[in-house]
Design brief:
The complex is a heterotetramer, with two copies of chain A and two copies of chain B. Chain A is of the alpha/beta class. Chain A folds into two domains: 2-327, 3-Layer(aba) Sandwich (Rossmann fold), CATH 3.40.50.970; 329-361, no CATH class. In chain A, 45% of the residues lie in helices and 9% in strands. Chain A has 14 helices and seven strands. Chain A has helices at residues 2-5, 34-59, 73-80, 96-102, 106-114, 138-152, 170-181, 201-204, 229-244, 274-281, 285-295, 301-323, 330-335, 343-357, and strands spanning 88-90, 158-163, 186-192, 195-196, 199-200, 221-225, 250-255. In chain A, strands 1-2-3-7-6 form a five-stranded parallel beta sheet, with helices on both faces. In chain A, strand 2, helix 7 and strand 3 (186-192) form a beta-alpha-beta unit. In chain A, helix 2 packs across helix 4 and helix 6 packs parallel to helix 7 (170-181). By secondary structure, chain B is of the alpha/beta class. Chain B contains twelve helices and 14 strands. In chain B, helix 1 runs parallel beside helix 7 (151-163), helix 8 packs across helix 12 (312-323) and helix 9 crosses helix 10. Classes of the chains: A alpha/beta, B alpha/beta. Chains in contact: A-B, A-C, A-D, B-C, B-D, C-D. At the B-C interface, helix 4, helix 6 and helix 10 of B face helix 4, helix 6 and helix 10 of C. The complex binds thiamine diphosphate (2 copies) and magnesium ion (2 copies). One magnesium ion (MG) binds next to strand 4 of chain A.
Chain lengths: 361, 325, 325, 361
């Protein structure tokens, strides 16, 4: 078992693909068909294209806040790929790759960042919770999903994400403790991208690794190279399988790096050196998987280019649709507070409707 | 009909609903094996098993947060906060998530869940065991807030709360958990959320209160009757959403208004009631709408609590003051 | 006098007070090295060192809870919650401890500390970034709650808050952080906590508001003047303890009352103001005291926020409605 | 260093005195003079006498809620004895032995449980925070005390207590994380008495030990026999010394047992077997230290008896004084909300005073 071989307390980290795209651990290469590999790589490409375009739109004043996933694609796609359609996805707020893989339409992703609740009204069959803004508070929801699965005797697994910063929140610990105590089928993925806005990972905790936090809950923990899709997949797959077999939760720390700003309102040059960013660009998860796929002769520059062109068009068109979406109708801000509008809400809604329609405003 | 006190009525409601609806699960600190520090959940684990009634680690955010996930994944969690003073660590979940899931997802997810907790003073308890914090929940859109005042209501309102498709904060006035008994039907019945109850019709003044103070107000009503003052007593039952209609109709009839609560005065729930009376019955008012409430001081420990507790005598005096305005 | 906006006025107050008083320490998430996501603390770490201005792990209860210990052990912590929406995990500390230490120990320990946080809507932000939650703090005995509306007030009130021997919740209307500039004296000055400010004297109606809405009300006042309506505009400045005197005197003069706030309507802060007007000026009222507030709905995301935001036009219309009652 | 030799992950627990009062680890016996040993034992005796009498008073209807320390005396006294007068004590709510040692007058202890805030108004020179009712929330206060000590360059240490149940609260983790990050001089003592009201330790967490939770924060952690005064003292002394030298916080799990009820409103027979309680009575921390002292020939049954008589009288007299204390004056409930009563409070106070004095009530 990987969680036994890669004990974070012994300073071990699971790596399979090096930054040049070479396999350094042949025996651990997960069983992924060429088609699957291409599918995952394409998801990463789409996520990246979306990030790049979103930042452009934002600079053009067409986009509100946006939190790019840039540089973290392998962590997100590699982990979600190890789950199945019937499994639950509980995001933090920066897992674009995972959401796209899970089947959230790009249009909704944009709608969310564009500022409407419709962006979290996912299609019926997408078992994903909405983005959770209060850091780490989503983890207990993930545990609850699993508690319900256990009670119902269903073998759905829940995969939940949190940032390195999120590990300092009290609720992180409460959730992991509940998960272990109730033996829930939960896989916790820490996207350790080295920063919580401006605060570096080293200021977040004195623990050498975040994976070792699992010890506090009597849960297995493992650290993986988060820019290595194969390593992330392998560790997550093992955790998902164990969870599905009823063997309980796992904590995975994926070590990656946020290449972009925290959000579009952030200026990372204030708090980090360009040289550090440059170094991590060299460890880009896309470049590395691309080289691997090219070496495997199942991908090439031509395919890459045409795929990117297709995605660029798709992203642009999707965003244009979103821009036409327009403002939220008055009724919508009242309608979903409760199943039925309370008399009080009806009164407020009617009065305001009358007021605005009366031409008084 | 069997005579039950409030705590047994709550226990019966939980029991019957767990029997009726397999998706109801009940959990919290000491809730499972022991059956709760007030014995509200006694017998449930034995009857329905550890999967449906169980103890949790000591972490309120974990309890409420996991209930959110449970509710999304098909269960109807009824969780207990041991005392309302210990709901504070869960406010991030309650205000930040519980109240918001339906609106946040435009209806994709909604949370049929109940958060039960004993609240209020008068039991000579340690710090944090006597607060009345209905206002924090009442001011949060997306929550419903219910407070029973009798065993009959405890059962009927709790059943309504569990079946409500939206999250309900169910505050139990611990002072009257065992204070008196009442005939409570064995059958299933529901008291609708969002409706106040006119406990006693009257003509001279509208008095609104809830929870443990309903009884105190009833005692006062008797004394006042002897003094020739006939109060209309309304038990709010639901703090949010407020049953404005019943209150306003009553004040339009009586012309006078008093709200009584144990929560702190300033920025407390009484202020809202005074405001809606102003909004809906201003021209009928013959005296300033008034409130009789806790002081704006941290609830005192037992040796000072008598200063804080509202008595029937105070109610009588306050009503006399208003009717002779 | 230099022209400052609100955020620079806050920065200057922190800077000057750290200079003057070695026991002042400033910390929170992103507060140290970066100087805060809104740049309120920019330059302070460089000037006063990492010991007195620093970043913390991402944990609001940790930030506030450690500030309690700091305050007891001789420091004056001024901590930042990145947005008021993220103070929720710290409510157990704030309501359960910060507000209570003096009373709990009968004065042996008291907490000279300030919890700063940006609050309110109008900046087209993500969920949890636009709420107005002054009421939760205002209803908690033991806390003071202060909200500045101008750069001048930001500096003077923050200096007062830091020097106050009791804990102060300092809510900064983020919408006007950089909206306008004002002459702010370099020197040290204090605006007393607990005193409202009459921004504009008037005769026809008393309008009370605070924070970002003071400017909107001023705009409305001009329009109203053209319509022949002369409002008396009061900037509350301190939500708790309330300056009842100033408000009641004013209503006794004008006979009409409107409170405007962005917080939710029901059980919101306006209800308290209406109640004290009832208690103190009932016989002077020529129209029902009224409120213009946020709806009882979770603050909408940007594409729906315009419905929620209170405009000068709405203020004008509401005032006209009241004066023509 | 003990924390290195007794790694909780290796299943080790520090023990010095066995349950018969024999030294099992000669080299670790801490350097405590006979006088000090007697002083500590007497504190334990007084704590026990107080507990026994309080339960009696309660049964007589003379006492409100009370949370006995019975059985946990070695954990409390052994740990606090390793600190100095200038150090801070941050209690949970069940550390009677520690409070008495720290210098809190017994009268105040009773006043607290009797239900008045005066019970937390400790003498000027007693550096102890009041009891914290919201479980685990006091730990961040302890960390803040230490942060201030660091800033001021003072070498006061803070010792903070929490129960086994308390380790599940989010704030437990936040506090330990802050302590490690800010390298505060804090000693965290978990009084693992096996229960959180009715919930047994095993339901609280899947972690084998509570001491291993230290790993999550990059902090040393050690498990000790909490019924062995010498072991508790030794571990705490080392931690206090390290803290004072600026080497940061330590987590100590003291394994003990609550022999009495949770509080006077609790009936432990509902949730635990008498046989378990009996077994732990055999490990009584007082009996064991007594045997050791008798073996050392510095204590005997006669001394024990007369000491107990003295304490019984003292406790009874103190309680009688407390019973005469009477109700809290009206003014007191208003006077301490702020340094100065606000106009609003003055108004409420004056009105109510007038009302009650007016004979209307
Ligand atoms: C409870 C809470 N506090 C503060 C914030 C403000 N905030 C948003 S993102 C963020 C940093 C999160 O860091 P991390 O968990 O590492 O995630 P990352 O942004 O790196 O993906 C902060 C402090 C918040 N959203 N929630
Ligand atoms: C936040 C919070 N939740 C619940 C309670 C109620 N309560 C009081 S003591 C206790 C158990 C504490 O267990 P533990 O931490 O092991 O301490 P012990 O009582 O064993 O000393 C509980 C649940 C509380 N005081 N605070
Ligand atoms: Mg991060
Ligand atoms: Mg315990």
């Amino acid at each position: 078992m990987l969680v036994e071989k890669y004990n974070p307390l012994e300073g071990k980290r699971l790596e399979i693909l090096d930054k040049e795209g070479n396999i350094i651990n042949e025996s651990l290469v997960p069983d992924l068909s060429d088609e699957r590999l291409i599918e995952l790589y394409k998801t990463m490409l789409l996520a990246r294209m979306t990030d790049i375009k979103a930042l452009q739109y934002q600079r053009q004043g067409r986009m509100l806040t946006y939190a790019p996933n840039l540089g973290q694609e392998a962590t997100q796609v590699g982990s979600i790929a190890a789950t199945e359609k019937r499994d639950w996805l509980v995001p933090a707020f920066r897992e674009l790759g995972a959401w796209l893989y899970k089947g959230v339409p790009l249009e909704q992703v944009f709608l969310y960042w564009y500022g409407t609740e419709e962006g979290s009204n996912f299609p019926e069959d997408v078992k994903m919770l909405p983005i959770s803004v209060p850091i780490a508070s989503q983890l207990n929801h993930a545990v609850g999903l699993g508690m319900a699965s256990n009670i119902k005797g269903e073998d759905d697994v829940t995969i939940a994400y949190v940032g390195d910063g999120g590990t300092s929140q009290g609720e992180f610990s409460e959730a992991l403790n509940f998960a272990a105590v109730f033996n829930t089928p939960t896989v916790f993925v820490i996207s350790n991208n080295h920063f919580a806005i401006s605060v570096p990972r080293r200021s977040q905790t004195k623990a050498k690794t975040l994976a070792q936090k699992a010890v506090a809950f009597g849960m297995p923990g493992i650290q993986v190279d988060g820019n290595d899709l194969l390593a992330v997949y392998a560790a997550t797959k093992e955790a998902v399988d164990r969870a599905r077999r009823g063997e309980g939760p796992t904590l995975i720390e994926a070590v990656t790096y946020r290449l972009g700003p925290h959000t579009t309102s952030d200026d990372p040059t204030i708090y980090r050196e360009e040289s550090e960013v440059e170094e991590w660009r060299g460890k880009d998860p896309l470049k590395r998987l691309k080289k691997y796929l090219i070496n495997k002769k199942i991908w090439d520059e031509g395919k890459e280019e045409s795929q990117n062109d297709e995605y660029e068009k798709f992203v642009n068109e999707t965003f244009k649709k979103v821009e036409k979406y327009g403002l939220v109708p008055l009724e919508d801000i009242f309608k979903y507070q409760y199943e039925e509008m309370t008399p009080n809400l009806v009164e407020q809604y009617e009065a305001y409707k009358k007021y605005t329609e009366g031409g008084e405003k | 009909m069997p005579l039950l006190n409030n705590i047994s009525a709550i226990n019966q409601a939980l029991d019957q609903e767990m029997e009726r609806d397999q998706s109801v699960v009940v959990y919290g600190e000491d809730v499972g094996y022991e059956g709760g520090v007030f014995r509200a959940t006694v017998g449930l684990q034995k009857k329905y098993g550890e999967k449906r009634c169980f103890d949790t680690p000591l972490a309120e955010a974990g309890i409420v947060g996991s209930a959110v996930g449970m509710a999304i994944n098909g269960m109807k969690p009824v969780v207990e906060m041991q005392f309302s003073g210990f709901v504070l660590p869960a406010l991030n979940q309650i205000i930040g998530h519980v109240a918001r899931f339906r609106n946040r997802t435009r209806g994709k997810y909604h949370l049929p869940m109940v958060i039960r907790m004993p609240y209020g003073g008068g039991v000579r308890a340690l710090e944090h065991h006597s607060e009345s914090i209905e206002d924090i929940f009442a001011q949060t859109p997306g929550l419903k807030v219910v407070i029973p005042s009798t065993p009959y209501d405890s059962k009927g309102l709790l059943l309504a709360a569990i079946r409500d498709p939206d999250p309900v904060i169910f505050l139990e006035p611990k002072r009257i958990y065992r204070a008196f008994k009442q005939e409570v039907p064995e059958e299933d019945y529901i008291i609708p959320i969002g409706k106040a109850k006119i406990v006693k019709e009257g003509t001279d003044i509208t008095v609104v209160t809830w929870g443990a103070l309903v009884r105190e107000a009833q005692k006062a009503a008797k004394v006042l009757e002897e003094k020739g003052v006939n109060i209309e007593l309304i038990d709010l039952r639901t703090i949010s959403p407020l049953d404005k209609g019943t209150i306003i109709d009553s004040v339009q009839k009586t012309g006078r208004f008093l709200v009584i609560h144990e929560a702190y005065k300033s920025f407390g729930p009484g202020a809202e009631l005074i405001s809606i009376v102003n909004e809906g019955a201003f021209l009928y008012l013959e005296a300033p709408p008034a409130r009789l409430t806790g002081f704006d001081v941290t609830v005192p420990l037992p040796m000072g609590e008598h200063h804080f507790i509202i008595t029937p005598e105070q109610i009588v005096d306050k009503v006399m003051e208003i009717v002779s305005y």
